[in-house]
Amino acid sequence: MSLRRLCKLLLRLKSPRLALCAALKLIRQRLIVFATKITTAAWLKAGDYRFLVATTPRRRLFNQRLQRRALKIFLKLPDRFYRKIFAAFERGFTNAGDSDRDKNSYFGIMLMIGTLGPGGAERQAVLTAVGGFHRGWRPLRITCVFLKEEWQRFFLPQLEAVGIPVGELARDSLLGGEFCTESLLPVFQQLPPRLQDAGDYYQILMDQKPAVAHLWLDECNIKGGLAAVAARVPRIVLGTRSLPPHNFSLHQPYMREGYRWLLKQTGVVLLNNSRAGARAYEEWLQIPTGSIQVVYNGFDFDDEVLQRHRAGRTAYRQRHGISAEVLLVGTVMRLSEEKRPLLWLEIAAAVHRHLPDVRFLMAGDGNLRSEVQQRADCDDLRGVVSLVGYERQALDAIAALDLFLLTSRAEGLPNVLVEAQALGIPIITTDVGGASETVCHGISGWVLDKDEIGDAAAQVVRLLQDTEWRCQAGLEAHRFVSEKFGVGRMLDDTLDVYGACFGDFK
How far is 1 from 140, CA to CA, in rounded Å? Predict the structure, then answer.
C-alpha cells in the first residue's frame, strides 16, 4: 500500500485509535519486508567469505582471521529466532497430533533426497536402495524433491531396472488425503516461508507410513526431519555428507537450530560418511563428540566392470587427442569454488614447467567453467590441458589417468578418490575433510602437507618420475579400498543404524 492510499484510508476512519493501529500495522509490515531484504542480501554476500570457515586461523592473514570470526558470529544470529520457531512447531504438532498412533502400522523404508542427479550423495542413496532391495528390504521407496529436468533423473534408470518405486515430492504430496483433514495444516503454515514445504514431506510420510525415514543432505534433512517427527516415524536417519553447511553457499539460516532441535527428538540419528565430517558437524552444532555415527560410503567393486573401464583407457585418450604414451594427470570435479579448479590449473602449470611432456585432463562442469577455460587458454597451459566438461562415464576418464589430483578446500568423503584407487590409479589430495581417510598415505596415494602451489607441484613431479612406486601403489590402492569401502559393509552398517525396524533382513 502506498503512502497516498494510506492517507486516504486514515481520512475515512472515524476513530483515531483505529487509524493509528492501521498505520502501525502497515509500518510494521514494511519494516519486516525491508529487514528481510537486507538480511537476505547480507546472507548471500557472506557466501563470498565461506571459504574462511574451513581454514585454520593461523594459516590466514590477520584481517582474514577477523573476517572469519565476524562471519561465524553473523551466521549464528538467526539461531534465537529459529529456536522459538521450532519450539512453537513442537507445541503445535503435539497439541494437534495423535500421540496414541499405532506404531505397528508403520512398515518399510522411505529414502528422501533432493534429486537423482550425478552427485556423490545421490549415488550412495541409489546404491543403498538397490543393495537393500536385493537383500529383501520391503517395502522400499525413494521420494525426490525434483525430478523434472533430465539431469535430475541421472540415476533413475538404475532404480527402474530393479523395480524400486520413485516419487516426486510436489506431485505425490497432492495425491494423499490425511494431511488435508486440517489437523496439522495450520502448524506447517505457521513455519517461515522457507520451511513451509515441510508439509509436503509430511503428506507423503503419512500416506506411506514408513518405519524408517532415511533423509539425505542438509535441506532435506531439516524439512523431512520436521515432517517425520510430526508424523511420528519410529526411526529418522539424517544423512549428512561433507562438512557442515555453513562452509558452503547453500547454507540456510534455519539449519543449525533445525539440527539441534531434531537431535532432541526420539528416534533421530545423525550420520556422516567420514570421521572428519562427523567431528566438524559436532563442533558446529556444539554437541558431544561421538554423537554422530560414521558410515563410510560403499562401492560395488565389480572386477568385470572395472576391467572394462581399464580396457577403454587408450580409446578414451584418443577421443580427446591425448597420446597413449604420455603421462596424464587428471581429475573429476565440480567446477565450483570449494573444489578450487583454478588452484588445480596453477599446480598443472608448475608441473608442466618441470615436465613439459606431461598432459592434463579435467572432467566436470560448474559455475567457474568460463574462468577455468580462460586460465587453460593461457600461454603456459595452452594445448596441454583437456577440458572435457561433464562426463557421464566418469570412470572412463579416471581409468585413462596415471595420477589423480584433487585440490579441494572442503570435502566430506570424496567418492572420486575411492573410485580412482579401485581402478588402480594412485591419488594425490589435499588434506581436507575425510580425504585422508580414503587413502593409505605413501602406499596407495599421497596426502599433501600443504596446499601451496610449489609444494603440491613438487610432489606431483616426484610421483610421476617414480614409475616403480606408481605401479605398486596402483596394486595396493585396489586392495585397500576394496576392504574399507565395500558395499556389503556399508549396507551392514546402515542396517545397524535402522535398528530393530529391519533387523530381520541383515
Answer: 51
Instruction: Give the CA count within 13 Å in the CB-facing half-sphere of 180.
Output: 5
Average pLDDT over residues 239-260: 90
* Closest by CA position to 375, among listed 427, 335, 405, 318: 335
Tell me how far apart the alpha carbons of residues 460 and 487 are, in angstroms, rounded to a whole number.
31
What's residue 103's pLDDT?
64
Distances (CA, A) of 377 to 349, 361, 373, 406: 11, 14, 6, 21
Q: How do beta strands 403-406 and 166-168 pair?
A: unpaired
Contact between 398 and 477 (Cβ < 8 Å): no
φ and ψ of 118, to 5 deg: -80, 65
Distance CA 458, CA 354 (A): 9
Cell of 492: 551392514
SS3 state of residue 168: strand
**Residue 185 exposed, middle or buried by CB count within 10 Å (0-12, 13-18, 19+):** middle
Q: Which position has the grid cell 503435539?
A: 94
> What's the 3-state SS for 305-346?
HHHHHHHCHHHHHHHCCCCCCCCEEEEECCCCHHHCHHHHHH
Strands of 395-506 (E only): list them: 403-406, 427-429, 445-447
At residue 99 the predicted structure's pLDDT band, cuts being 50, 70 and 90, is low
Per-residue pLDDT at 59 exceeds 70: no
Higher-scoring residue by pLDDT: 410, 319: 319
Maximum Cα–Cα distance for the chain, whole Å?
A: 94
Q: What digits encode the pLDDT tens for the residues 209-241?
A: 999 999 999 999 999 999 999 999 999 999 998
Mean pLDDT of 434-440: 93
Give the CA count within 13 Å in the CB-facing half-sphere of 436: 13
Alpha-carbon distance 267 to 423, whole Å? 39
Per-residue pLDDT reduced to its tens digit, 159-205:
999 999 999 997 776 655 454 445 678 889 889 999 999 999 999 99
- Calculate the average pLDDT of the chain: 87
pTM above 0.85, yes or no: no
Length of the chain: 506
pLDDT for 181 = 47
Give the cell for residue 236. Answer: 529418522
Distance CA 143, CA 275 (A): 28
Distances (CA, A) of 171 to 168, 221, 223, 297: 6, 20, 17, 30
Q: How far is Cα of residue 153 from the mean position of the Cα atoms in its chain?
A: 17
Instruction: Give the DSSP per-residue string, 350-374.
Output: HHHHH-TT-EEEEE---TTHHHHHH
